[in-house]
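Section 3.1: Structural characterization of target chains.
Under the original work plan, the team committed to producing a structural model for every single-chain target entering the pipeline before any wet-lab resources were allocated. The record below documents one such target. The sequence was received from the expression subgroup and is listed exactly as submitted; it comprises 222 residues.
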Amino acid sequence: GYGAAWFTADGQIGYYKRRYPEVIIQEEKTKLPFLKENKSAFLDFWETYLDDIPSDGGFLIIHGRSASVGIPVNLANTHPFIAENAALIHNGSVSSDKYHNQLEDCTCDSELVLQAFLAGGPNEIEFALEGWYAMMCLQYTPPTDEQLAANPGIIGQKALHIVKDLKSNLHCGVMPTGSLAMGTSEYLLKDMGADIEGEWKEHVHVKFTGPKEFEFKEFKKL
């Protein structure tokens, strides 16, 4: 399947999913249903799940995959996974005795990564899951009551989390506009027009809150 997620101006998460990206033809690319007038036609022709919410022009995560062996092909198993003001995409294979898939009709192991991340961040992923992973997660944190009292117009925090373990591939590039792009293979970044900068460091969690505002933390299973 294929999917994408982004932030709106007020911190909502807009997202788009489809099951069969291989059937997209050049003539249909101009009809991708980010505009409301295309929604009905696409829902009739493709099996699609989307929210028609405009992006704030900031972070964007995109995921494309072939189904793992034994995993049903359906929208519930299509990235991104959405829960609690967060949207997550994942590359890898994981299992967990602690977490169980809770999304209706979802049998994808990647959904376990989202559950662990929401429960305790990258450390919880590392300690509670077995396997390998590289993940990106959009997460919105609403303002506190104190923040709203001081500034009624405050939006809250929009963040992009990027986490990579020891085994997974994750590469970084720079787009012609100067923005950063991350992907699991160099050729995908090159197809996007990015200049390759190198591979993402292992056991690292980076939290971006803006184009040049980020927190960098290392983590490792003992």
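The radius of gyration is 18 Å.
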